[in-house]
Write a structure and sequence with these properties.
Layout: E1 2-5, E2 8-11, H1 14-21, E3 34-36, E4 39-41, H2 43-51, H3 60-69, E5 73-74, E6 112-116, E7 126-127, H4 128-131, H5 135-147, E8 151-155, E9 159-161, E10 166-167, H6 179-196, E11 203-207, H7 210-223, E12 226-228, H8 236-248, H9 277-282, H10 285-288, E13 292-298, H11 300-310, E14 317-324, E15 326-327, E16 333-334, H12 338-348, H13 355-364, H14 374-384, E17 385-391, H15 397-408, H16 421-433
Parallel strand pairs: 6-8, 6-11, 11-12
Antiparallel strand pairs: 1-2, 3-4, 3-5, 7-10, 8-9, 13-14, 13-17, 15-16
Helix pairs in contact: 1-2, 2-3, 5-8, 6-7, 11-13, 13-16
């Protein structure tokens, strides 16, 4: 099987998979799995070992799609959330001597709490506990305070911060850094922590994403600590729901609520349901004057222009997705609608008020496509793009968008998706225009 990922051609056969896995051991299976000769493996682990592509550059669903093409049986990766397989996965547990867990010991047990920093920050220097303003950080901070245990902030730039340590705002995201940086960062965090606590047998509860937790696994294990991630596998909306359940019902540290049912987003993944901008506008405001999700699709010639401008391959198909309306992390309900987002901002606005128009301008600027003029960009969109929309109840929009981005991994999206060379290029080009 041959395929192209991030502009690089690859060839893969079933025997390549088996050879790559022979010296390895399966990591714990969270949600999705691939069956290789009777053993369940996490798809990203298998795909990374076989291709030597960094895990940050692809999603689980991309790995599942290619592994299915090779004939391997996998978990369902359609738009609906599915349960994990009930049968045991041989050798899937981490070696006992590492003493690293993601769901044990019992959730009522913790000795130290670490809260991951957020991209949203106050505008001026302040204590670490107050500098970060993202919704998940604020909820995690309150959870840590209520626990009565020592707690610290995980900073991509500074490592481990005491809550009262005063620092200035910065712009560093751990996922953007090299593998060496992340490995050194993890070792440094544990070294800082070990100077404050004897870590032998200590339960370290971490509230952060996989990007921040993974570098801590090996050094915490070496120190004799036990890592627990109560939010592992939950996306942003589900994490906020988890914190809400702790504050309104059970005591902090009790068993997490089950992830909410995610709305079906398959309508946005079917190119046959996408319509031309002209047809969308002709259908009128009434049909789309409500919150929901949308996906933008590009034809072959449009994809070629985007590829030329970015220097990375953009295949024809779904290139961008987003939401209109929904409940913001602050709890405020957005009044935006699909008509306002797609019909007014995308097709009738300008790049100063439309992230999608800014993205297209940045991607096309070096391709020879005349996009400096807003009217010219709109004309290009009418010629080469189609759009699909999915109205949803306001309470479902954010959770459904998380699922859509996870499944579709649109190449021109920059938020809540893995970093890739294409996205790094796009981000750099956009920064010159913003």
């Amino acid at each position: 099987m041959e395929f192209v990922l991030n502009g690089v051609s690859h060839a893969l056969q079933p025997d390549d998979i088996r050879s790559a896995l022979r010296p390895a051991r399966p990591e714990p299976v969270r949600e999705h799995w691939v069956d290789v000769d009777g053993v369940h493996w996490p798809p990203k682990q298998v795909f990374a070992l076989a291709t030597r592509i960094d895990r940050s550059e692809f999603t689980s669903h991309l790995a599942l799609r290619h592994l299915q093409r090779l004939g391997f049986r996998t978990s369902d990766w359609s738009g609906s959330r599915v349960e994990r397989p009930t049968e045991a996965a041989p050798q899937a547990a981490a070696p006992v001597e590492r003493r690293v867990t993601t769901g044990q010991p019992p959730l009522s047990t913790r000795d130290v709490v670490l809260i991951g920093c957020s991209g949203s920050k106050a505008g001026t220097a302040g204590p670490a506990a107050e500098l970060f303003t993202g919704a998940a950080f604020v909820k995690g901070r309150e959870h840590a305070r209520a626990s009565g245990q020592p707690w610290y902030v995980l900073s991509a730039k500074y490592g481990l911060l005491s809550p009262d340590e005063v620092i200035a705002p910065y712009d560093v995201y751990l996922g953007d850094q090299s593998t060496t940086y992340r490995k050194t960062w993890g070792a440094g965090v544990v070294a800082q922590l070990s100077r404050l606590h004897d870590l032998s047998g200590v339960v370290v509860e971490v509230h952060a994403g996989k990007t921040y937790c993974d570098p801590l696994l090996a050094p915490l294990a070496a120190s004799g600590a036990i890592l627990r991630q109560p939010l592992a596998g939950l996306r942003q909306g589900e994490r906020l729901s988890w914190y809400g359940a702790q504050s309104t019902g059970d005591t902090p540290g009790s068993a997490p609520v089950q992830p909410e049912i995610v709305p079906d987003v398959s309508a946005l993944l079917d190119g046959h349901r996408a319509v031309s901008p002209e047809d969308f506008l002709a259908s009128g405001r009434e049909r789309a004057d409500q919150p929901g999700l949308y996906s933008w699709w590009v034809d072959a010639s449009g994809a070629a222009a985007l590829s030329a401008g970015l220097g990375h391959e953009v295949p024809p198909g779904l290139i961008y997705a987003g939401r209109a309306g929904g409940i913001r992390p602050s709890g405020v309900v957005s009044t935006n609608t699909l008509w306002g987002r797609v019909g007014t901002m995308h097709l009738g606005g300008n790049r100063s008020f439309s992230t999608f128009r800014l993205t297209l301008t940045a991607a096309l600027a070096k391709s020879g496509t005349p996009v400096d003029d807003e009217r010219a960009l709109t004309d290009w969109m009418h010629r080469h793009l189609r759009v699909a929309v999915l109205p949803l109840p306001v309470a479902d929009v954010v959770t459904a968008e998380d699922r859509l981005l996870e499944i579709a991994d649109p190449p021109l999206n920059l938020r809540d998706v893995p970093q890739t060379p294409l996205r790094r290029t796009l981000s750099r080009l956009r920064s010159t225009l913003a």
